[in-house]
């Protein structure tokens, strides 16, 4: 049985961790390095650091904040937001990131996914897909959910796999921050259409939601933010629950 990963997400704006609902109404949650350290201690398998304003505001990547966060971790750190080039990726990997997450730039310049996977290895390249439900499926949005690309999400997932991505970070915009559960239908569709690992994101509110996205949608990893920030459940408690349900998790 494949070991399922629990990933804590840090949405960062102006150097601080924030969390909203459906990408808006952001509330301050703390310092990235402090929260990352806490989540590793609780048993997180990985940390994802997403600078959610860098792309839409045209800002530089917060390399010092990335470096500070990486310095307190022994588990993998993935970083996204504001990446525009191979040089940006190189800087992040040189400042402590183990992986980078490409979202808007992957749509605007798909060739960068291929070039990056060849330069740094596909294991270091995640493509993040933010998807919103439409009549007959899901559409890909970029720039922190503000721009509709017109791309169909499952088709885009297949393409990024072919471009060389090593992993997909799949977020349901409709579920983000709602704590109503992951979009099982969306996750199942992407997992079924691809062969690379899929990280489910958006909607975690209780342990049963994690169990469902692993058991029903077959996600390889589940990412959450708000329920960890607000101490709804600790990662340690969550893993104990999942293990009791027969799932393989790292303890």
Automatic annotation (TrEMBL):
Keyword Endoplasmic reticulum among UniProt keywords: no
Cleavable signal peptide: none
GO molecular-function term, one example from the UniProt record: imidazoleglycerol-phosphate synthase activity
This protein's UniProt keywords: Amino-acid biosynthesis, Cytoplasm, Histidine biosynthesis, Lyase
Annotated pathway: Amino-acid biosynthesis; L-histidine biosynthesis; L-histidine from 5-phospho-alpha-D-ribose 1-diphosphate: step 5/9
EC number, as in UniProt: 4.3.2.10
Keyword Manganese: no
Record's subcellular location: Cytoplasm
Active-site residues (renumbered): 11, 130
Biological process terms in GO annotation: L-histidine biosynthetic process
GO CC term (a single one): cytoplasm
Catalytic activity: 5-[(5-phospho-1-deoxy-D-ribulos-1-ylimino)methylamino]-1-(5-phospho-beta-D-ribosyl)imidazole-4-carboxamide + L-glutamine = D-erythro-1-(imidazol-4-yl)glycerol 3-phosphate + 5-amino-1-(5-phospho-beta-D-ribosyl)imidazole-4-carboxamide + L-glutamate + H(+)
TM regions (residue ranges): none
A Pfam family assignment: His_biosynth
Subunit structure, as described in the record: Heterodimer of HisH and HisF.
Family per record: Belongs to the HisA/HisF family.
HAMAP family reported for this sequence: HisF
Protein purpose: IGPS catalyzes the conversion of PRFAR and glutamine to IGP, AICAR and glutamate. The HisF subunit catalyzes the cyclization activity that produces IGP and AICAR from PRFAR using the ammonia provided by the HisH subunit.
Alphabetical list of PANTHER family matching this protein: IMIDAZOLE GLYCEROL PHOSPHATE SYNTHASE HISHF, IMIDAZOLE GLYCEROL PHOSPHATE SYNTHASE SUBUNIT HISF/H IGP SYNTHASE SUBUNIT HISF/H
Protein name: Imidazole glycerol phosphate synthase subunit HisF
